Amino acid sequence: MPILKIIILAVIQGLAELLPVSSSAHVVVAEKLMGLDPSSPEMTLVLVMLHTGTMFAVIVYFWRQWMKAYFDSMENFKRFAVRVIAATLLTGIVGEAIIKVLEKTVFKGTPHAQIEDLFGHLEIVAPALLAAGILILIAGLAERKAVHRSVTEGPELSLGQASLIGFVQGLCLPFRGFSRSGATISAGMLAGVARGRAEAFSFALAVVLTPAVVGREALRLAHVHAEAGTNAVGMPVAMSLLGMVFAFLAGLLALKWLSQWLESGKWYLFGIYCLVASVVVFMLHQRGY
């Protein structure tokens, strides 16, 4: 794969991943326009490695906030750990259940079918973007009405609120276009969590989740090459590492912008963007992409 295409995908991923507009949808569309196959093992590995770059951007950006909120005492750390574990377990249970149902229904009778086979279908990406846009729009408009609610302060995240965020994250896993950050932050806001707290917890969950996703796609790629009797895994991994660096840099810029928009009460505009993007993606599907 040309290095230029990797860099383009990395910048798109880095800018979009940390904004609630679904980086996966943007990367899938970009891959389609560049003649790449989003469902191939090589491309799904590239995508999750780009996620890894943005994961490091999240760690750098939120480190001081996390240290202050979650690691300043053993009691706070234990409370945070319980909520992260509960949310992540729910994410895994819900996400894996949906994946298994889809693989046994949508792909019934298709040998070796996997959820990744759906990633290149823009007719699925479009409604996923639509659903994310509606959720973000509802949360944003509700937040604007609650003018008394603080941007960053408020009651600590409860176990129930954390579990809800984890549940919603599980719903996002199988679908490209259903923005993980957009859905989880919006769910937290609708559950009464201050925007800043919802943002920080949502990205903390992403850091926990990313290594498992990377491992899944690396094993998938290795399995495909083992079945084909080839050993050409090194090149996709090397290209992915290059893209990871660019995704990291773009991710830092996106995080700064996201926080500014959260603080200025413009969350609902991301919902409008997703609705418009849904229409654009559907039109591209109609044109044969």
TrEMBL record:
Give the UniProt record's GO annotations in the biological process aspect. cell wall organization; peptidoglycan biosynthetic process; regulation of cell shape; response to antibiotic
EC numbers for this chain: 3.6.1.27
Q: Which InterPro entries match?
A: UppP
The keyword Cell wall biogenesis/degradation belongs to this UniProt entry's keyword annotation = yes
How is this protein named in the record? Undecaprenyl-diphosphatase
Q: How would you describe this protein's topology in the membrane?
A: Multi-pass membrane protein
* Keywords, comma-separated and alphabetical: Antibiotic resistance, Cell membrane, Cell shape, Cell wall biogenesis/degradation, Hydrolase, Membrane, Peptidoglycan synthesis, Transmembrane, Transmembrane helix
**What is the purpose of this protein?**
Catalyzes the dephosphorylation of undecaprenyl diphosphate (UPP). Confers resistance to bacitracin.
Reactions this protein catalyses? di-trans,octa-cis-undecaprenyl diphosphate + H2O = di-trans,octa-cis-undecaprenyl phosphate + phosphate + H(+)
